[in-house]
Amino acid sequence: MNVRRIVASLLTATLVLVLPKAAIPQGFAGLGSTADSFAIPHPGGRLAFPADHGPHPDFRIEWWYATANLQAEDGTVFGVQWTLFRSALAPRTDSGWLDPQIWMGHAAITTKDKHFVAERLARGGVGQAGVAAEPFFAWIDDWEMKGLPHSGADQLDKVSLHATGKDFSYTLELSANGPLVLQGDQGYSVKSAEGQASYYYSQPFYEVSGSVDIGGKTVRVRGKAWLDREWSSQPLAKDQTGWEWFSLHLNSGEKVMAFRLRDARGGYTSANWISPKGKPNPLPVGSLEITPVRIARVGNKDIPVAWRVQIPARGFDVTTRPLNDQAWMATTTPYWEGPVTFEGSAKGLGYLEMTGY
Amino acid sequence: MLWTAATALLSHWRRRPLQLATLVLGLSLATALWSGVQAINAEARASYARASSVLDQKELTQLVPRRGDSIPQGTYTKLRRAGWNVSPVIEGDHRIGNTRVRLIGIDPLTMPAKAGGFETGDTSDLTAFMSQPGVLIVSQGTALKLKSHTRMQLQISPDMPDGAAFTDIGIAESVLKRRGELSRLLVAVEQRPDLPSLGTLAPEIALKEPGDRPDVAQLTDSFHLNLTAFGFLAFVVGLFIVYATVGLAFEQRRATFRTLRSLGLPLSSLTLLLVTELLVLAFVAGVVGVVIGYVVASLLLPDVAATLQGLYGASVPSSLSIRPSWWATGIAMAIAGTIVSSAESLWRVRSMPLLTAAQPRAWLRATTVGIRLQLAVGLLLLIMSGALATFGHGLMVGFAVLGCLLLGAALMLPGVLSACLAVLQKRSSRALVTWFWADTRQQLPGLSLALMALLLALAANVGVGTMVSSFRLTFIGWLDQRLAAELYVMARDESEASRLRAWLPARSTSVLPIWSVTGEVLGDRLEIFGAAADDPTYRDNWPLLSGTVDVWDRIAAGRGVLVNEQFWRRKGLGIGTGLVLPGGWEVPIVGVYSDYGNPKGQVIVGIDALAAHYPQVSKLRYGVRVPPADAAGLKERLTSEFGLPAENVIDQTTLKRQSRAVFDRTFVVTGALNAFTLGVAGFAMFSSLLTLSGIRLPQLAPVWAMGIRRRDLALLEVLRTLALWLATFIAAVPVGLALAWVLLSIVNVEAFGWRLPMRIFPMDWLILAIVALAAAIVSIFVPLRRLATIAPSDLLRVFANER
Q1: Which of A91, A184, B185, B297 has the fewest CB atoms below 10 angstroms from its CB?
Q2: Distance CA B404, CA A207 (A)
């Protein structure tokens, strides 16, 4: 008998909006292809920076999504996630408690045998959470993603990342050695055959250094990180039930973004082959094939944690292995998110996100 | 053998069904009142706990402002940004239609998991909850009252207490006009380990540890203690019955014991049989008692609920839920009571020489030895009671004074009566009269327990009656002073109120605003009223207990504050003490006024000062002074001409009648408990007389043999009983008055926060005397009939075969 229960019921009813990545869209009123009075992405809409690093309150949903594959000096491997979601109840902002912009933070550290998760919720209007484009600053409570003085062209070239949970915290510095990458068609990323879409760009070229703290023990780490920025008002098509989403750092310096949205007709796939210099090569729909290799019992669910990922057009055929099968994000809207390594036609590491299980 | 012995022992009850009935009924009644009271208390406490866990989140640490009644929104943000897991609350009273609702604005996004709360039936929508016009989560009862008075969506939650509503903090902020002002912050249990300290971060707020008990539970403690005391009194009175009956039943069965033992039944088996018998009886009586208790509690609970609502503003459901723990304690009390009151008899069976004869008479006389000891102990208790009353403080001391007083007086009663009877016996010259007094005195030990029970019941009646009547008289006098305005009107909204302010002056002698804000003063949430202190209404009528000479001038000038008696006593304030009001405004106390029927503290400031310091004050209510003859006319015009709904205009007479009705309802419970206790005492008397009548033949037979007719013997019995009742009644009056004094001067001050002058109501005593007399006559009826119709042969047999 506690407020949390009503809150939980309220949140699951609404905050799935925030996480279309994790949404099961059936049954949620108004979540079809219509976007009420919210703005919707258009093909050919040009992204402009630094303004587009900031929030787009006239869109229903948005996120600043960073994942990092890290390693300590002794070889111990870590995965780190820092995410700030924005979900608007109405397409406007307001100062004070009646601001309809809701913010949600997810942070996680994954090790070989442990997975730490924390979640924060806040509403805009009172300064508890928000994002400013210039100088870049995204925060919720004491979690921050903050633009640092940089020599590069973009606000996001150098950022610090900080989050704390009950038994963990991390402070990282991310420096980009490549440009921002627009996904889809110049940042217009189609999500279904019916035309649901989002604005989507990434910064996949971060080199990371910093420290992670688990249970009071601090470890210096280095590694690679990937930032996804996406906003939309049309989450998923009616029959889409979830997705698998890969962000892969190839040892060659190339990057691969690939996702499959599951539906009754074999799914909708999309992939982008990014050159080491940051040149995007969006591949045609249907270029990607993914097949589960191993199913693991996670909580009371069966989750395919290892995958064969094939992009025949690029001769790419690898199998991903998770660092930890149990990388389950037990948050308001639960999903699987964890670091992976892959072998096959290429080697490397990255992150896998799976929703709708 | 064991079975045969058991049937032999049980046959006693078959031959004396009345004795069995007395035992079971006595114990049942005692248990009934005790468990009834416990049921009521348990229900009330459960409801406080529920309300508190839902509304106050008492189990959580909270952050509250050090001064004033609000925390800036920026402080919240600062704390969150520093990693503190806190959640904001904006709360306040809000009037919707004619209903005042405690509005609690929460932030569902940061609400800690441990916060007590509520469940929603259907899956609600955060969008609706967090957007205009908002959602109110309320109880069924509150929903009915608010329906059609608000645009907000009403959502019913079974866990919500009446009169309160949860809503989103944004909605609460705009409805309560507390822009950016938070009432308090809830601190989640789970926090980051290395939090920056509160002192450096936000020195303007203070940490408040989780309160272990709800405020309202503390407030109503004394009331429940009162009930418990009554229940316990009745229980003790009931145990007197059990003690007497069990003792007699054992004594009468001595011959059986002797026979059984002679036939070879071991002592241990006999004891086992007797203990089993008692336990079974106690269990049965306990179950019957708890059932009666449940009925009693269900009958009383609506009144108790009304009392708690009236006196403390505590909301308690008027229906009873059955709790297993309450069954268990009721039955346990019955069994424990039986064991306590029959321990002595059991012990005697164990230590009894095998072949002694049954001596019911001697058994009774043996208790005489105790009378002197009782007298001494009783005197000691009375002295202790006096000493406690003089030197002690606090509610528990008050009840200790009560306990010592009642118990001391009861213990002394047989001794005092015995002494009086001895004097009467010496001074009488006629043989029959001398015999009459001597015989009465001889009977005293057998009746003493019943008489003591009677004394307790009568004294409680006189005492509580005096307290209630004194209270009532004072209260009504105070109401007459306080409700001086002829009409009380309430506008429905601000614009109507401003029209009213323009409309009324031309049609009345004066218009007195009744405006108030709620805020925290000295750590208590209380109402701050404004008074138009320039108006003669206040100067002439407002009942002040003490104050400076120029009190009203200082109030009018905004240079002083009045506090009510309960707040004054609770906080130990004095005239001249500075009081910090919400918003950090400090004013000296210039006077104290009596404020009966209000559980909470209250302060009054000048109306201009109130409006200046709290511009958001709701200006809807007014008292209107008109010549009394014009009141009805103005009331009519207010509804027909001005257009106020009839229920928003109340005249003085109606208001006084309503207040009196609330008051009277308040003490219905006390009256009922009083009557019950008297009933149990009457039953104790009845059972004692019945017992005696069965074993008194040896005393009466010789008198009859000397020529006194049976009819005259019966008449003498009536006289004797009446004499004893009268004596007890006379003794009960001073004890009752002492009780009333303790209640008025010690217990009430602690319980309610006000002291009342004691008034004496001899007419009430007369009524009580008549009721008591009637009870006496009823109680003697059965024994008397037995005596008057006894066959001469039975009387003769006394000489033939007794022993």
Answers
A1: A91
A2: 83
For residue A313, give the DSSP letter.
Answer: G
Task: Write the pLDDT tens digit of every residue in B67-86.
Answer: 767 889 999 999 999 989 99
- Which of A224-228, B587-591, B741-745 has the highest average model confidence (pLDDT)? A224-228
Take residue A14 and report the two structure tokens written for it: 């609404």
Cα distances from B506 to residues B513, B626, B638, B645, in angstroms, run 16, 11, 13, 21
Q: Which amino acid is at B174?
A: S
d(CA A255, CA A227): 12
A183 lies in which domain range?
Answer: 3-354
Nearest CB to B106: which of A3, A5, A100?
A3
Q: What is the pLDDT of residue A248?
A: 97
What interface predicted TM-score (ipTM) does this complex get?
A: 0.88
> What pTM was estimated for this model as a whole?
0.63
Rounded Cα distance, A304 and A293, in Å: 7
The span from the CA of B219 to the CA of B214, in Å, is 9
pLDDT at B361 over 70: no
- CA B398 – CA B221 distance, rounded (Å): 13
Q: What is the mean pLDDT of chain A?
A: 87
**CA pair distance B669, B230, nearest whole angstrom:** 11
**Has residue B725 got a pLDDT over 80?**
yes
> What residues of B are in contact with residue A7 (Cβ under 8 Å)?
108-109, 111
Name every chain A residue with its beta carbon within 8 A of the beta carbon of B118.
1, 3, 6
Cβ contact, residue pair A142, B83, below 8 Å? yes
Nearest to B30 by CA among B774, B675, B681: B681
Strand partners, B284: none
Inform me whether the C-beta atom of residue A304 falls under 8 Å from chain B C-beta atoms: no
Q: What is residue B122's predicted lDDT score, i.e. its pLDDT?
A: 33
- Can you tell me whether residue B676 is helix, strand or coil? helix
Helix (H/G/I), strand (E/B), else coil: B284: helix
- Model confidence at A25, in pLDDT bands (50, 70, 90)? very low
Task: Name the band, by pLDDT with cuts 50, 70 and 90, for residue A30.
Answer: very low
Chain B segment 168-197 residues within 8 A of A by beta carbon are: 168-171, 173-174, 179-180, 190, 192-193
Cβ contact (<8 Å) for B117 and A6? yes
Listed by number, the residues of chain A in 40-99 with a beta carbon closer than 8 Å to a beta carbon of chain B are: 89-90, 96-99
**What is the rounded distance in angstroms from the CA atom of residue B169 to the CA atom of residue B160?**
17
Element containing residue A268 per DSSP (H, E) = strand A268-274
Q: Of residues B785 and A64, which shows the higher confidence score?
A: A64
pLDDT above 80 for B177: yes
- Chain centroid, CA B2 distance in Å: 49
Q: Which residues have a Cβ under 8 Å from the Cβ of B623 and sit 6 or more positions away?
A: B484, B485, B487, B488, B511, B512, B514, B537
User: Percentage helix, strand, coil, to 5, in chain A?
Assistant: 10, 55, 40
Closest by CA position to B355, among listed B252, B261, B247, B249? B261
CATH number at residue A187: 2.40.370.10
Q: Which chain A residues are within 8 Å of B80, Cβ to Cβ? A: 122, 128, 141-142
Q: Residue A199 is inside which H or E element, if any?
A: strand A197-214
The token duo for B784 is 């008397």
Is residue B275 within 8 Å of B346, Cβ to Cβ? yes
Closest CA to B507 of B622, B653, B645: B622
According to DSSP, residue A22 is labeled G
Overall domain count for chain A: 1
Which residues have C-beta within 8 Å of that of residue B772, sequence separation ≥ 6? B454, B458, B678, B725, B729
* pLDDT tens profile B607-636: 988 888 888 787 888 889 988 888 888 888
Ramachandran angles phi, psi of B457, nearest 5°:
-65, -45
Q: What pLDDT, on a 0 to 100 scale, did the predictor assign at position A32?
A: 33
Q: What is the DSSP letter of A316?
A: E
